[in-house]
Specification:
Length: 468
């Protein structure tokens, strides 16, 4: 801490003592940005092979000349450790991973072949129970939207679900909504490995527009000459956009692609844009432009690209992105439910509340069994379970007076003990006095993809809604 700022960190304790921080503590508003700036500064000379993000350092290496990838990696690690030593930065050995072929980075997994979605996020999406309200649907879509770049037809798949979230829309879960819900799960479960963008290779964009959607993909050729996808993007057309003439819809798709891939394409050497609308090549040279097209041409002027005509039969990728049958409002009702062949019965602790209400899904069996088994080691709850399984004066008499007075608040859901404060209270799973079990449940609510890494009070409130 700067000496003049030390008094600003003063904390008064109940004992009357006044404590001041001599180093930067966690919790200050500017602490994360200050720390990130410091780490980025000290590692700047090594950023070609050791990029950082806050307190995470990602060291990546490849073979150089006669040196193997491992030998180069060891050399890079020594350089990183030397810089850390000089700046008195310490690594937590328990959190370090060395010489790994694949590492988790900001919610995804990166390897030499590219980047793929984090399996824990895919699992969370696939194991999510069917939403029963707009709030639950928004929560699920919030997680699914994070992975949309891995699914080439994502925007089309969620179109029926988006209609349920419109203002003044009546909540009524129909078969077409369930079909869309299952289709998104299946699409993300089979998401491909995306190629990592290589600035030394040229990019090219494929885009297309239909009567109700636009889609595009950023692509590159790998070292073996194979065309690989860097990112997918697609979206529904707005009501006004559906009224555009055909020769305006294609530039709309191209504009959308350039906006989405701006960070890769702006300032890039000449890149190619492939479209299945031949007139687009001459539209931008026409002396008679609408005001809309004139605005778009001003935007296109920022980029250095060449438009190539690619018939729809050859432009399969972008054509599929924009022409999903389930994306067209006219055909939504005709879709069939797609069964999830990889359906799993494992569910995380966050999903338990739905199972207790007997709506859609059971809690994770391993967790359920662990909770049930722990009742036997808890004197209080073991007696309650024994009474509920075999009510008698003997089992009731074994309970304390306070427990007997509240026994009507307990009931069994299978082997799982549940608690209700009153008849209007949703049942909550009773957790035995087991530190490991409680830590696991807390981890699910705090650190899982659905947990949002909330603070202490909010995490406690979230856990308390479902567990007792």
């Amino acid at each position: 801490m700067r000496e003049s700022d030390i008094p600003l960190t003063a904390v008064s304790t109940p004992s009357g003592m006044l404590w001041e921080w001599l180093v930067m503590p966690q919790g200050l508003k500017n602490a994360p940005a200050t720390f990130n700036r410091m780490v980025s500064h000290v590692l700047r000379p090594l950023r070609d092979f050791a990029p950082s993000y806050f307190d995470d350092i990602f060291v990546h290496s490849r073979a150089e000349g006669d040196l193997s990838a491992v030998e180069v990696h060891v050399r890079h690690l020594r350089q990183v450790f030397q810089v850390m030593r000089e700046n008195k930065l310490y690594a937590n050995l328990k959190k370090c991973v060395f010489c790994a072929p694949e590492i988790p980075v900001l919610g995804c997994y990166v390897c030499k072949n590219g980047v793929r979605a984090g399996p824990e996020k895919i699992s969370s999406i696939c194991l999510w129970p069917t939403p029963t309200s707009p709030t639950e649907l928004r929560q699920w879509l919030g997680l699914a939207n994070y992975l949309h770049k891995y699914a080439k037809d994502y925007a089309g798949l969620i179109q029926p679900l988006s209609s349920l979230l419109k203002k003044d829309a009546t909540w009524l879960w129909r078969p077409e909504h369930q079909a869309a819900f299952d289709s998104v799960k299946k699409s993300l479960a089979s998401a491909p490995i995306l190629m990592l963008p290589d600035d030394s290779k040229p990019f090219h964009v494929v885009c297309d527009a239909s009567d109700f959607a636009i889609g595009c993909a950023l692509m590159q050729f790998d070292d073996e000459g194979r065309e690989r996808v860097v990112s997918y993007q697609s979206r529904q057309m707005k009501p006004a956009e559906r009224n555009y003439p055909v020769h305006d819809k294609e530039p709309l798709a191209m504009r959308y692609a350039l906006i989405k891939f701006r960070v890769y394409l702006l300032g890039e050497q000449t890149f190619a844009v492939y479209t299945d609308h031949a007139s687009l090549r001459t539209t931008m040279k026409s002396p008679h432009l609408s005001q809309r097209m004139a605005r778009w041409l001003s935007f296109f002027a920022e980029y250095n690209f060449v438009v190539h005509y690619k018939p729809g039969k050859n432009n399969i990728l972008a054509d599929a992105l924009s022409r999903r049958p389930d994306y067209d409002p006219r055909t939504v009702l005709g879709r069939q439910v797609i069964d999830d062949e990889d359906e799993d019965d494992d569910y995380c602790a966050v999903c338990i509340a739905s199972s207790i209400n007997l709506t859609n899904v059971a809690p994770e069996m391993d967790l359920r069994d662990e909770i049930v088994a722990a009742y036997a080691d808890d004197a209080v709850y073991a007696g309650i379970v024994a009474y509920l399984r075999a009510p008698s004066d003997e089992t009731l008499g074994a309970l304390s007076r306070n427990t007997r007075n509240q026994i009507d608040r307990y009931h069994l859901d299978g082997d799982l003990l549940c608690y209700n404060i009153d008849k209007f209270d949703a049942p909550r799973v009773v957790v035995p006095n087991d530190d490991d079990l409680r830590a696991r449940i807390t981890h699910e609510f705090h650190d899982s993809p659905m947990g949002a890494h909330l603070g202490r009070e909010k995490t406690f409130a979230a856990v308390s809604r479902d567990f007792f």
